[in-house]
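Researcher: Sequence recovery benchmark, item below. Answer with residues only.
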């Protein structure tokens, strides 16, 4: 049996450790030690050949700098987000530590709460190294159908941007604007994230498939999504600080909104939904913001 190490025992790391244990011998580690099966130290886990990293995007660069030692490990990145302080994508951050041929990115619709109950889904392993994608794909359990793709940047942007649209969709729901408004917002969100990703050479098919439309439809239409719940909080007039405190888990859409806002300014890009989500996170009344992009 292949040995795999999962780094980050939050919601997603724990669900992936559970799922991968159908076909592999799985070990797990985290910043906060836990009394759970196969929990080992970071030092021990870094000796394994295959690693899955599931810590929040905003923490990745400092975590790598302080903790990671490259030793030819093959990495599957399970985080979804863009670094707020620098606007860097995760593949750019990891590039300093792991060569292209040894890194892959996971994408597609995947609420941890469903994966941990063995409910079915379909996911994509994205890597420039097709052999590596195929290897990681083979480790997934029978209840998860896996596909592979070489569109790393497309999958990464889709997974990060859909969290921003999910915040907007939560606001739409919280303000009781109705299903028409919600569908309009989600489809315009898909166009916006696709247009943004084309700037970076992403492929069209990524956006009509699991990584784009698949994950967007999931996250932007369910209260199970933390990002959607951030939107509900904004609609109730709460500040982002209050919302984050109440949530108690990561909502990557917040940091990603700030990253997109800065990238849009720097590159003069038209990202109307991301811009209004930014304004609302900064305190603009959601009625004002929503009328900016929904009213004619
Ligand atoms: N939950 C989901 O359904 C899905 C989540 N994702 C993505 O996976 C990533 C993780 O999400 P999720 O597991 O849900 O988040 P959680 O908030 O549940 O857990 C995050 C984990 O990251 C660890 N962590 C936080 N900060 C640091 C740090 N500075 N250094 C080291 N470890 C740290 C924490 O470890 P500790 O608790 O030990 O302190 C924590 O357990 C996010 O990018 C998310 O978008 C992707 C698909 C599905
Ligand atoms: O990425 C996810 C599902 O694919 C999880 O979304 P949330 O972080 O909004 O809960």
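Model:
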């Amino acid at each position: 049996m292949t040995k795999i190490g999962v780094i980050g025992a939050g919601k997603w790391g724990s669900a992936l450790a559970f799922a991968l244990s159908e076909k592999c011998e799985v070990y797990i580690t985290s910043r906060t030690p836990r009394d759970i099966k196969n929990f080992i130290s970071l030092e021990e886990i870094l000796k394994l050949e295959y690693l899955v990293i599931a810590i929040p995007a905003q923490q990745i660069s400092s975590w790598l700098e302080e903790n990671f030692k490259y030793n030819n490990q093959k990495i599957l990145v399970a985080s979804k987000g863009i670094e707020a302080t620098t606007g860097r994508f995760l593949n750019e951050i990891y590039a300093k530590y792991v060569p292209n041929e040894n890194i892959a990115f996971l994408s597609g619709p995947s609420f941890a709460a469903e994966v941990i109950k063995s409910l079915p889904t379909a996911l994509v392993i994205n890597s420039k190294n097709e052999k590596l994608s195929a290897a990681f794909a083979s480790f997934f359990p029978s209840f998860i159908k896996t596909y592979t793709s070489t569109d790393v940047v497309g999958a990464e942007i889709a997974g990060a941007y859909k969290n921003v649209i999910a915040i907007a969709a939560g606001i739409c729901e919280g303000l009781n604007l109705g299903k028409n408004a919600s569908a309009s917002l989600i489809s315009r969100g898909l166009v916006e994230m696709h247009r943004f990703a084309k700037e970076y050479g992403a492929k069209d098919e990524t956006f009509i498939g699991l990584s784009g439309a698949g994950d967007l439809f999931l996250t932007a239409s369910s209260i199970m999504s933390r990002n959607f719940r951030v939107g509900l909080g904004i609609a109730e007039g709460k500040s982002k600080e209050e919302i984050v405190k109440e949530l108690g888990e990561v909502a990557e859409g917040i940091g990603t909104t700030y990253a997109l806002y800065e990238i849009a300014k720097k590159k003069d890009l038209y990202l109307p939904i991301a811009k209004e989500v930014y304004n609302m996170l900064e305190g603009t009344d959601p009625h004002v913001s929503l009328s900016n992009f929904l009213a004619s």
